Each structure stands twice: as C-alpha cells, then as structure tokens.
Amino acid sequence: MSALAAAGFPEARIRARARNGTAEVFPGPDVYGTELFGPDAYGTDPAHGPGDGLDRARIVPPVFTPERLEKLIDLAREPEFTDVDLTSRVGGFASRLPLYLSAFGSTRAGSGDLAVHATRQAARLGIPMVIGENMVPVHGYRRAEDSGRSALLGRIEAYLDAVPDGVGGIVVQQSTEDADSEVWNLLYSDPSLRPLLETGRLAFELKTGQGAKPGLGGMTVVGGAEAEALARRFTVRKVFDERGERQLRCATPGTFTDEILRQQLRFMRNNFPKAGTWVKFHPGRDIGDAARTAWAAGAGAVTVDGAEGGTGYAPRVFLDQVGLPLAECLRRIGRPDGCLLASGRMWEGGRALRALALGAGAVGLGRAALIAVDEDPEHGLERLVDALALELRLLISALGKYTVDALGPEDLWWPDAPAAPVPRYAPDPLGAVR
Amino acid sequence: MDQTSRTGTATAPPPLGEHLRSPRLRAAMLVQQEALHAAREYLRAQDFVELLPPLVGPVTDPGGRGAKALDVDYYGQPYKLMTSAILYKQASLRGFPKLFYIAPNVRVEPEETATTGRHLVEFHQIDVEIADASREEAQEIAAGLLTHVTEQVWSRIPGVLAELGREETGFADVRSGKYDVCTHHEAVTRLQACGHPQNPDGEIDWAGERLLSLESDRPFFINDYPKGSRGFYDREDPENPGVLRNFDLIAPHGYGELVSGSERESDYATIVTRMRESGENPAKYAWYLKEAREGIPASAGFGMGLQRLVRFLTGLDAVWQVSAYPKLPGVMAP
Lengths: 434, 334
Known about the structure:
The complex is a heterodimer of chains A (434) and B (334). With 434 residues, chain A is an alpha/beta fold. Chain A contains 17 helices and 17 strands. Chain A has helices at 11-20, 53-56, 66-75, 113-125, 135-139, 151-162, 176-181, 183-188, 194-198, 224-230, 258-271, 287-296, 316-321, 326-333, 349-357, 367-375, 380-398; strands spanning 44-45, 49-50, 58-59, 88-90, 93-95, 99-101, 129-131, 170-174, 202-207, 219-223, 235-237, 246-250, 276-281, 301-305, 340-343, 362-365, 412-413. In chain A, helix 12 crosses helix 14 (326-333), helix 15 crosses helix 17 (380-398) and helix 16 packs across helix 17. By secondary structure, chain B is an alpha+beta fold. Chain B has one domain: 2-Layer Sandwich (BirA Bifunctional Protein, domain 2), CATH 3.30.930. In chain B, 35% of the residues lie in helices and 18% in strands. Chain B has eleven helices and eleven strands. In chain B, helix 2 packs across helix 11. At the A-B interface, helix 7, helix 8 and helix 11 of A face helix 9 of B. Chain A: This is Glutamate synthase (NADPH) GltB2 subunit. Chain A: Belongs to the glutamate synthase family. Chain A: InterPro entries: Aldolase_TIM, Glu_synthdom.
C-alpha cells in the first residue's frame, strides 16, 4: 500500500478493484444463498427523505365520500373497514386478495425449502403464485428414468394440496434458455397438472426481464462442478476467482422487438389455449409501449417489476443505478388496457395501496415473502399478509371506497409534483414524478 | 361416398394382437399399400427424388399446439426424435430441388387430442419440398397427389373399399380435382357466425376444423394463416404483413386436415427473427442456421398425413384403426 491518498474520491473501492478485479462488480459470493439481493431496502435520498418515489406519495382520504353513501344504501348501515372487499381478479384467476407470490430469483435462498413453505402459505391464502424461470434448466424436471420429484413439481404439488377450491392459480415463467427445456410444453402435457388446467388455474408467464437487473438475463453463483454441468446451456464465467471455485452463470435476456413480443404471446395463446398468458417486464424506459403491445396481443396479465424489485443475484451497478422506479413505470403505463401487476419492495399496505391506486390490479410479494417464511416456516407469510390485508382494508375504507378496483390516482398526493390547481376530474395519474 | 359424417369418436384400440388380426386393419393396410405406391408413382413422374428422412437430430420442428418432441440421449447430448423433417427438407434443396420422404414422425400430442380421431403419437407424412416454387405450385402438387392416389386406390382395389362400405360416387369431386379455396380469415368469420368461439389469431381449433369439414362435400384449401399460429419456417407474405403464405388442405365430411404446407422463409435474417417471434432460441438451430446463412433456396412444400389419408379413403372412424401399431396421445401402448 503506497501513501497515495485522494480525498473525496472513492479510494477504498478503487483499491478493492485493483486487488480483486471483476469480483468487485458483484456482491460477495459468500453471502449468496443467505442474502436476498435487491436495491437498498430503504435508501435515503437526502433531498426527499426515506423511501423511493412511490413511498413519498401520500394517501389522501377525501371529506366527501359518495361511494361510501352507495355502500351505506346497499348495507342499510354505516360501512366499516371490515366491509372492504379485497377479492380480486389476478390475470384471469380469482384471488382472495390483490396479491400474488412473485417468482423468486434462482439463488439458493429462492429455490430451497423456503420457497416450498411460501408456496403452501400462498395456497392457503388463496392467492396466485408465480414460479420462476430456470427452475427446470437448473433443477431438472421429472424424466422417465427419474422417479424423484423435481423442485418445480414439488412446489406445484404443495400448492395444489393446500389451495381452496375456486381461488388461486399457478403461473410458470419461461425465458429463452427455458425454451430449450420446453418447460411450458412439459407442464401442459403433464397429467399431474390436469386439475389446474381443468379449473382454469394455470398460466404461463413470458419473462422478458427483471427489476434487479434490467436488460440482463438471470444470474446465479455456482460451484465448480455445477458450473461444468451448466456450461453447455449457459454462459459461465470465472469472475470471482481465477481458479473458478465459484463461477457466475448467466442466462441471456433474449431479444425482443414489438413484433417479437406480439408474436410470442400469440404463439403462447395458440399453443396453450387452456393456460393463461402473462408477461413480465423489467422497468424499461419504453414500459408503456411494451405493456400496451402485450395487452393488444392478448396478454391476460402484464407484470412490471420496478427497479426496487428482485430476489436474484445482480451486479452492484444494476442494483443501485439501473432501471426506472416502479412509480415512474406506472406513470408511463397510465391507465392500463388490461390486468396490470406490480412488484418491487412490496411488504405492507401503504405501498401496495399506492401501486393499486396507480392502476395495478394486484401486487407481488417476493423478498418479503421469503423473509417471512424464514422467520416462521409454518405461518410467517400468512401473518405478514394478514397485517397487509388489514392495512389495505383500513386505508381503502378511509378513502371512502370498498373494492380494490375503485382506487384511483385521485387517492394519492405527490409532494414532488409542482403545485397546480387541483383539477375537478380526471387528474393526471402522477403529475411529474422525478 | 358413404355420407355418414365422421366424428372420430371410435372406441379405444383393442389389445394389439387382436387389432393386428382384425379384417378391418387388413383392409386398411391394403389401402395404405396402394396409396403409398400411387403417391410414389405420382411424385416420381413429376421428377421428385425420394430420400430417406433422419430419425434423430439436435433439433426438430418445434411444432405447436402443445405437441412435444421426445428426447433421446445421444452420446450424452440431448437429441430429439423428428416431429417433422422440415429443416432437413430445406437443407436438402441445393442437392435435390424436388424431393420427398415417406417420413415417420413422433409427436407427444396433448392428451385431449386422443379423442379427435385424427391424432396419433407415431405417424407418417408424405413430405414434399420444391425449390423455387410458390404456394400455388405446392397446392397443385398436393391436390394432384390426393387426386391420383384416390384414383389409383379406386381402380386397383375397389372391392376392398366397397367392403369397407365406401361408395365410388362419393369420391367424384376428389377424383375430378375440383377443390375450393378460402382464407383463414373467411374460415374464422364463418365459424364465428355460427357461434363457434374461434380465436382469430390462432390455428383453427379441432372443433372448428371439424365444423368446416362437415359443411363441405369436396376438399378445400384454407390459405393465409396468421403469423403466431405456425412455425417460423412458413413465409410471411411481404404484401400482407402478419399473414403467412401457407395453406391446409381439408378433406370433406368431417375428416379434417390432410395436408399442411407453405412457402418457406429462406432469408437468414428473417429466419432468425421469426425464430425469436416463435419463442425459439436460435442457438439450438446452429446447423440449420449455418446452411441458411450460406443460402438455402426459396421453396414451397407440404406434408400429407398418411394415416389421415388412409382414414379418409377407408372411411374409418379414427386414425388408430388405420395404424398397425397405434399409439394414442396419453395412452400407454406397445
């Protein structure tokens, strides 16, 4: 170490890169599998205080509540928060709450026992569940010579065992590498999934990206032996150490144009007519066009994963510097033409309500769900959701409303927006969110 | 023709031994033998060369409608049993500008197709490809093939067909080569008008196809399927984006689709783009894309389902009755 100093310059980080090279681009592989990656949970912006743009909007109940009057007439008594109906349609499924269990990144944290516990509880809650891409390319699927249950089928069975009749549903993602494993085809023709198909509770989600690393494909840290096995299908790179004891497995993000997206969705509808068709986008700058293209092509749900989202592994620069915040994604989408789903740091009622008021039909729980089942594998997620649902009922009733789809942009106030006369009707969803 | 409409609801096959001994299968095999002979005769007279198709490869036709390819372990690499030899047909054109196969195919069809009477997991296609041909030229060959085969079977073994209850007068339209043409859009409109909820962006579904087939007394072509309903190799109409220069040939009286065909994409960049549009990973298709990059001729071609053709000629209820070793979707059979 020389005596050279550079005050005000990120000297320590530069020295770390000079020592460790590309390993410094990523969070340490030592915490892989025990830490959920994603942007700082509550990054503090000195200009605005805690939280991101979506958290800074205030929920603003009105004095006059014509919709409460309607409810009063309907009930012949004063409505209460317990009268709020949280049942929702989520991408064609009936759901008891405007929530779904997001796909977990393929870190060990997201594809082990925790995921199975989260699955059981999501089923008992009667909310849909999304199963992540690359479960099959990485963990395999039941083959003729393999009588064991794969991780994917294990989760599907756990869900089916616990879900009440008439609610919930399972959504299975596929990305470009998954297409090689023909995940959707395997599932669609698997007799064990017939109960799902017959009750209209299976959907397939085309994954075009994710919030934690917009513009990149999936990434996991793998040991040397596993790296060798995966190297045939994925790019595997020695970014952590020269010996390659731990390596980075990268999937491609896939190439999309509006026509490719439109046709892929049509293909899904054509090939799997009994399954719903969902699509998940990263928080791209053209998210408005992408969402409209997807709905026009018949997508039953469009999921936008804000830059705050992610349970998977990602380069540091992506976690902190890449992608639109969820609030801006929702602003660019505006009034949705179909079912819009939103994810990215959801865990309590306030943020969920803000996303719902901005057009989302439901919000996804990812990291929050994993932490909750880590806290209590038996009931942690159920308790977390009970608290969230109670907050939603309290908030929605305070707004003088009694259903999720009654929420609208008028229910929020943005301190960042320039002061403007309050419009009498049809306000711009967000004003300018910076 | 025996005018009873075919619904494909014949019962499941008996045990294999009993099936192989049945007089009905024997009659069907005699018809199949004549049909194959007549098909080869017709195509060879038109200067087609018969090649033998591959059985396994690193990739096969991705197919659609939930049909899967079977994987085989090929020296540690995952190979596929051929669901169709389309990629090989195109690659062969530089050496064989007019070629055909009698190609065995294996498609793990979704179980719901077990009752259509028109699906088998193992089946054969009379698979034809013509360099530098248009859709209309391919249709002419397909129609000529059906006409010639029908003609020859009736002239060589009329007794076998009569024994099966077929009437020669019913085949007059087929033998005269008078085939109607409509577009996918017109077919969808017709179906929706009679209350059938046909998806306008997709394949004509099984029930819809049957309705159209039952309405008709003569074979007819459906042209111009929308992109997103067929494979990446069906050529998009440059004059009409989103529409493919392809066709199906539908048999009358409820027998349904006998032939699928198309002009092919041969431009490398277009093929790669179309692969993405159908959700495919181009890396899987390395050998084929290398050929395409070097230049494969423009072409048109089709596949005629052999068992469907024989079922149409014999008038039997289901394709399993015209297969010696039938494997129905979702049913374990030897």
